[in-house]
Each structure stands twice: as C-alpha cells, then as structure tokens.
Design goal:
- The protein has 14 helices and no strands.
- The protein is an all-alpha fold.
- α8 runs antiparallel to α9 and α12 (257-280) packs antiparallel against α14 (292-316).
- It is elongated and about 80 Å long.
Length: 320
C-alpha cells in the first residue's frame, strides 16, 4: 500500500512540476502572441487564454507544447480521431497531455524501482494509454449509434410515407430520440438550415463518424439524392440489413467468447504473477531484473506475449 501511495505521489509531483515549468516558460508570451495574431489580418486563429482559471491556462500550455512537437498534417489526423470519439479537446492539447503523462509515468516508475528499463516501460504504457481510451470511447459511441440506427430509420421511412420531406422527417428523429446519433443528425440539420447544401452536410458527417452502418446509410442517401427513387423503401432495406448484421455479430460474439477470455487470461496472467511474486518475495525477482540474461528473457517474453495476443485477436476477429 505504501508503494502505491509513493507512486501516486511521485507521479502527481512530477506532473505538477512539469506543468509549472511550462506555464513559467510560456505565460509571458501570451499577451504578445495575442496582440500579434490580432494585428495579422484582423482575425485571430487562436487567442491567448483569458483569466478563466488555472485549467484553461494549463490546457492552453498543453496545446502550445503539442503544436511544437507534431506536424500539422498529423494534428489534423488526431483531431479527426478525437471528433469521432466525441472528445471536446483540441489535438494540440491532447498531444501535450500525452507528453506530460509519459514524463510523469517514467519519473514515477524510475524513482520507485531505480531501473531505467522499467522507467521506459512505464513511459511506454503512459504513451499508449490515451490512445486506448480514445479508441474505447470511439467504439462505444459507434455501438450506441448502431443500436439506435434501425429505430431512426423506421421513423424516417414512416415520416416520408406520411408526406414529410427528408429534412422534416430527420427533424422528427432528432426530436423523438436521444444519443450520439441524434447529436450528429441535429448538427447536420443545423448546418443545412444555415445554408449548407444537404449533400455537403451529409458528407461532413461522414468525416465525424466511424460506423460502417451509418456510413452505408449516408452513401445510400447521397446516391438516392442524385439518381432518385423511393427513399422510404431504401431506408427499410438498410434497416433490415443493419438488424441482420447486429444479430449475426451477437451470435459471433457468443461463439468466440471462449477465445476472447483465453486471450485476456493469457495476457494478464504473466503480469499478475510477476506482481504477486514481487510483493511476496521481492528478492526473488532481483536476479531477473539486474542480470543481462534476465533482461533479455523479459524482452523476449514481452515480444512473444504481444505476438500471441495478436494471433488470438486475429482468430476471433470475424468480419460481418
């Protein structure tokens, strides 16, 4: 318990020190940068943060750090990924937070263990964890969209049969339903009402989502708007296809549950055993950490573990 408290304390201390240093370095430039951006063309791309609190100042500094270390094309790619995960954060801030997490994780693990190797491993975990969180939120958002999509298509097709236009039927969906799907439809309607053509608004929605079923719907809508046809029947057909896909995916998930559980157990067991042995008998693991042969064995075990996880994931990943 004492070790855990020490790790948390060291991580928070290092994070606060790094954040303080960054604020000290960048804060004096804030006012001058704002004046320069105001005078350059009369419009500001990004203003220096106002006096709205330490959180805003901190996030602004994280954004400046991220902008310094990553190319603009990579920033656009990361921003698109954050939008798909529905995270209200700029890509530069996200990159800055990752840098802070990596530094804090390395310092905490290194000060606790005294091993550069374990410090690097801790930094690696800190590097990949934000991406895992983003992908997890993106996956949950996509699943929520898929769950609500058949019902939304039924409302759309019934509205079209009742004589509504596509925009009016979409407004009914926004009014009657909730969730991330409704948020995207609402944004599309708002853009259309502000003067953007519906085709362009639907294309923009394609860039904000990562869901095969919704992408199929949008592409079908775009084609139908160009070539014509009975849109209500098209929507009914898409709804039926999505329901069948969801049913088949559920059956596949049930049949592959054993393989997925095996992958989880095989992934967690070695790490859990190492932690338990280190707690019960710390001297037992010292040779493995300090000797070159032991370090080579650890690296080889990690590589084989990763290969095994990838193989098991490939075995249970069945595309529908």
């Amino acid at each position: 318990m004492t070790d855990l408290v020490l790790v948390v304390a060291v991580f928070l201390s290092v994070s606060l020190v790094v954040a303080g240093l960054l604020l000290t370095v960048f804060s004096p430039r804030t006012a001058a940068l704002g004046r320069l951006e105001k005078s350059a063309g009369g419009q500001m791309v990004e203003q220096a943060p106002k006096n709205t609190g330490l959180k805003d100042d901190f996030m602004w500094v994280m954004g400046r750090v991220g902008r310094l270390v990553v190319r603009k094309d990579k920033i656009r790619e990361i921003q698109a990924n954050l939008i798909k995960a529905d995270l209200m954060m700029r890509a530069e801030e996200y990159i800055g937070m990752i840098i802070l997490i990596v530094i804090g994780a390395y310092a905490a693990v290194f000060l606790l263990t005294g091993s550069i190797l374990f410090g690097i491993l801790g930094a690696g975990i800190g590097l990949i964890m934000p991406g895992i969180v983003v992908n997890s939120k993106k996956k949950k958002r996509s699943q929520a969209m898929t769950e609500h999509l058949p019902e939304a298509l039924n409302i759309l097709s019934n509205g079209l049969r009742a004589g509504f236009s596509f925009t009016q039927a979409l407004s009914v969906v926004v009014r009657e339903m909730e969730g991330p799907l409704t948020v995207e439809f609402s944004r599309t309607l708002r853009e259309n009402r502000l003067g953007k053509p519906m085709d362009e608004a639907l294309n923009d929605m394609l860039g904000r989502i990562e869901n095969e079923d919704l992408e199929m719907l949008i592409i079908a809508l775009l084609i139908q708007r160009q070539v014509g046809g009975n849109l209500a029947e098209v929507l009914d057909s898409i709804a039926h296809t999505i329901r069948e896909r969801v049913r088949i995916k559920g059956e596949i998930r049930t049949l592959t549950a054993e393989g997925r559980i095996s992958a989880i157990i095989l992934s967690v067991a070695p790490v859990a055993m190492a932690v338990i042995i280190s707690i019960l008998n710390p001297g037992y693991m010292v040779t493995l950490i300090e000797e070159p042969v032991g370090i080579i064995m650890i690296v080889a075990a990690v590589i084989m573990q990763i290969i095994g996880i990838l193989v098991l994931r490939k075995m249970v990943a069945i595309e529908v």
